[in-house]
Amino acid sequence: MRSEAKTVIIGGGIIGLSIAYNLAKLGESDVVVLEKGYLGNGSTFRCGTGIRQQFNDEANIRMMKRSVELWKGLSEELGMDVEFTQSGYLFLIYEKDELEAFKNNVRLQNRFGVPSRIITPEEAKEIVPPLNTNGVIAAAWNHTDGKANPFKAVFAYAEAAKRLGVEIYEYTEAKDIRVEEGKIKTVVTNRGEIKTGRVINAANAWAPLINKMAGVPIKIPIEPYKHQGVKTEPIKPGQIEPMVISFKHGGVYLTQEAYQGGVIGGYGLKYGPTYDITPTYEFLRGVSYRFSQIIPALKYVNVIRIWGGFYAETPDHNAAIGRINEIDEFYIAAGFSGHGFMLAPAVAEALAEFIVDGKTDKPLDFYDPYRFERGELRGQALQMG
Ligand code: FAD
């Protein structure tokens, strides 16, 4: 293992790896990524694969618009197919007040160039033929949203970063961060020490532990909540192409994988704060029931896998991204709740620009880690599941 590096990134999920890649792309390749398990084992490999621009605030819409632009070219850029497909997101609407809220969101999304629109239940059924439209009065639809394969995206970023000179150490846990007079000196790991002047905390659900190691003096409330996912056996291709969501049915979301053909999804049941991710029978029963309310034919399809993972939640469900002023060259990008996979390309690009150039044209300020300390929470980010 290297004994010295300009930058140490703690966390080998999609966020840490995409930041490593973007730093190296900007010429800062003296980067080491530390991952305490295997790459992606945190939240990233446990995610629901969804990528959407249908948010309810300007910053997340703009970030996600940029992210989708990047997702579109990512397979080519990284030299590995990440299976990104623009199969759309379909929010089912059952109540009049829900419809008003979605109309407002659509207006905002359209202002920033996202082509979402409100459609009829009949149009929704054309998009997803086996959909149960009983009680549905409308749907919010955006055909440029989509999904990608988290396993492939992680390896694609990791391999591309390595080609640019980044070194990645799996099974290497950051145990301590030595800081003297506001300057980072060393990251202590289970495999030795690395001298460094810059640390990026990309540990998501574990980010508060990393902040504590460095003595970050401000309050950044990130808490780990257990959410679960499910996957069924493959069904005939092209049945449920978009991500379909119903808040009325407990925040259920589901989509058919573009390549493997199984139906993947979950719903809003959460436990915590906890670091336990054992799957529960309560979830299996709840998700099966909700899937079959949305797509009745799924009653006859077998579940082949369920799993638990973390939503690393802040009080406004937006991540904390930026520099910690009291510790020279300490940065955080963590607390991504249910939308860190989709945001990674744009967040990593923005943070790398900010670190290397001192500025970015993306709305990074929105995720200011000091907002909690100041009591200036953002509006709750639209969160599914
Ligand atoms: P992680 O992938 O958790 O990576 C952090 C890494 O840090 C971990 O691998 C961990 O092992 C490592 N680490 C921690 N402490 C240390 C240490 N001391 N030393 C070294 N390494 C350390 N997002 C979407 O965008 N779309 C979705 O559809 C979606 N669905 C989801 C469904 C479920 C059921 C869950 C659980 C999450 C979902 N998410 C979704 C959220 C998404 O998975 C996360 O926001 C995203 O993966 C966060 O990436 P990350 O790299 O920040 O975190």
Q: How many β-strand runs?
A: 19
Which architecture of the largest domain would the CATH scheme give at its second level?
3-Layer(bba) Sandwich
Number of domains: 2
As laid out across the biggest beta sheet, the strand order is: 5-6-4-14-15-16-13-17
Low-confidence stretches: none
Cα-based radius of gyration, to the nearest Å: 20 Å
Bound molecules: flavin-adenine dinucleotide
Task: Give a description of the structure.
Keywords: Oxidoreductase. GO terms for molecular function: oxidoreductase activity. The chain is of the alpha/beta class. The chain folds into 2 domains: 7-46 and 151-222 and 316-374, 3-Layer(bba) Sandwich (FAD/NAD(P)-binding domain), CATH 3.50.50; 87-145 and 223-313, D-Amino Acid Oxidase, Chain A, domain 2, CATH 3.30.9.10. Helix content is 30%, strand content 24%. The protein contains 9 helices and 19 strands. It has helices at residues 14-25, 58-78, 96-111, 121-127, 150-163, 207-214, 281-294, 340-357, 371-374, and strands at 7-10, 31-34, 50-51, 89-93, 117-119, 138-142, 146-147, 167-169, 174-180, 183-189, 192-195, 198-201, 223-232, 243-246, 252-256, 263-266, 303-313, 320-324, 330-334. The strands form 4 sheets. The chain has an 8-stranded mixed sheet, with helices on both faces. The chain has a 6-stranded mixed sheet with strand order 8-2-1-12-19-18, sandwiched between helices. It has a 3-stranded antiparallel sheet with strand order 9-10-11. Helix 1 (14-25) links the parallel strand 1 and strand 2. The longest helix has 21 residues, at 58-78. The protein is globular, with a radius of gyration of 20 Å. The two termini are 40 Å apart. 50% of the residues are buried. It binds flavin-adenine dinucleotide.
